[in-house]
Amino acid sequence: MADPASQLIVPVILSGGAGTRLWPLSRAARPKQMLALTGAETMLRLTARRVADPARYAPPIVVAPAEQAEAVEAEVSGLGMLILEPVARNTAPAIALAALNAAANDVLLVLPSDHLIGDVERFGTAVQRGLPLARADWIVTFGMAPDRAETGYGYIKRGAALAEGVFAAERFVEKPDAATARSFIEQGGYDWNGGIFLMRADALIQGLERHAPAILAAARAAVEGQAREGLRIRPEAAAFGRSPAQSIDHALMEKAERVAVVPAAVRWSDIGSWAALHEASDKDAQGNVVEGIAMAVDASNCLIRSEGPLVAAIGVEDLVVVATPDAVLVVPRQQSQRVREAVERLKAEGKSQWT
Q1: Is the pTM higher than 0.85?
Q2: Does the pLDDT at position 2 exceed 70?
Q3: Residues contacting residue 54 through CB under 8 Å, at least 6 positions apart
């Protein structure tokens, strides 16, 4: 039997979701993870590169919608397995599919495909710090160091120390209001919930069996009836469709007994809005982020991006202006979360060609 210490971590990259908060650039047919938002490479490719060290990581498992199959294969080199979800059911069922297709003693590192990590080396150190507990059947999550009282993220409160740099997760907190977020920063001991987890496949399965049995039952039936063609795995659609749609936080993390948190100052962002992308991007002397066929004249603290036509922003401040060949978005930067309202209205009016 192989020495557990020599076993490679199996990355599980979750590549679902449409990322409508970055409309009009992100669409159902071209979701956020397939966009190059912070450089020349897509978010998915950057995520895969983050776990590409063959001395530490096995070839990744990617869980994605069936319509993304070719795009995923083009972006992820050294792919180990591509599980194609027949229908979206949120993160808990998706992770269950990966765990049931892995070996029971595999340690899985579950990663969203569309997050930014600025300090990859420090992230790797955090993963290694949590690995002994994951091998000992703890579910390990990573607390992203907060640098502001953010209301758009969930939080994790640290409990008792378990090892150097590792703590029991005392509780998970939903996205707070502004006053609560400020109190978390003032108190200390709270980290942002980045949605990254490290755990043995069998620990995850056992946790779902106890706390979310309907999700596990549907995933098991889907895996039992799945078809495989090369690296592509297609779970049985009707069985998977019967799964409740639930996040891994609600299904398991908030209920499990042995959950640990590793605080990680890795310059993380979920790039969950145009304001978040502005925050994470390099800026000019006036605080502008200008990409593509665009210019800023006497403008400040704006994000201006165009795939065509030419966009010129003159004498404005704190705006997001994003143009694609068929749509233009203009919104105050601090209201950029409201982009989803435009997407919802387009859908309600039957104008899906723009979504």
Answers
A1: yes
A2: no
A3: 8
